[in-house]
Design a protein that fits this description.
With about 230 residues, the protein is an all-alpha fold. The protein has helices at about 1-75, 95-105, 115-130, 140-210, 215-229. The longest helix is centred in the first third of the chain and has 74 residues, at about 1-75. It is flat, with a radius of gyration of 55 Å.
Length: about 230
């Protein structure tokens, strides 16, 4: 009997152990599922972040590339044919610009040397012209440059004249204002002088009335004098 009872206890223990094991397995599976779910969620968010980063990088790269192209264009320097292409036969059309170049760059004002030498100088000028390497923009088309400079100076001069005119107008207005004040002061002074003259006249008449015993006239004049004061 005792042996049988121990056997039953062993069975119960095994069942309990088995049940506990199954429970542990279930919990372990749940943990694994949650872990996998959390991992997938984390991966999804990471991919999303990377996608946004890539998008920003591409936009930045595109902008940078555009700026680089612009900068590259600016830094490219002389461009062949930028101002056109000229040859020896164009000397008559470019005579003015060429003459200024000869005078200012080569120091040959009013050149009167042989034709072949003049042609050699023009070839040098044409080479710099065609490769856009002349030392100043005016040597490409002097007449055009001169006209543009004239227009700029005219606009600047017009602006200066306008400012000068405005200043003159302000000064004239100030003078008129000052003259007006002077006139008012002058009028006030004249009035004061006239008033003083009247008072002296009244005082003189009062003294005469007092001497002659004209009491009524004396009192009348005295009243007028007091009223004016």
């Amino acid at each position: 009997k005792k042996h049988h009872h121990r056997h039953e206890d062993t069975d119960d223990s095994s069942a309990s152990s088995s049940s506990s094991l199954e429970s542990d397995v279930d919990h372990s599976d749940d943990r694994k599922k949650r872990k996998r779910k959390h991992h997938h969620e984390k991966e999804r968010k990471k991919r999303k972040r990377e996608k946004r980063k890539d998008k920003k990088k591409k936009a930045k790269k595109k902008k940078s590339s555009k700026a680089d192209r612009k900068s590259q264009k600016e830094d490219e320097g002389p461009v062949f044919g930028k101002y056109g292409i000229i040859k020896l036969s164009d000397l008559p059309q470019k005579q003015r610009s060429f003459s200024v170049w000869l005078e200012e760059v080569k120091g040959l004002a009013g050149f009167n040397g042989p034709k072949w030498e003049l042609q050699n100088y023009f070839k040098e000028y044409a080479e710099d012209y065609n490769t856009a390497t002349l030392p100043h923009i005016k040597y490409y088309d002097y007449d055009k440059w001169e006209m543009e400079e004239y227009q700029k100076n005219k606009a600047a001069s017009s602006e200066t004249n306008e400012s000068a005119h405005m200043l003159e107008h302000q000064e004239n207005a100030k003078k008129k204002k000052d003259q007006g004040f002077d006139l008012v002061r002058s009028m006030m002074s004249n009035e004061k002088i006239q008033e003083m003259k009247r008072q002296r006249q009244l005082q003189s008449e009062m003294a005469h009335a007092f001497k002659t015993g004209d009491q009524a006239r004396y009192l009348q004049l005295k009243k007028r004098l007091e009223a004016e004061k």
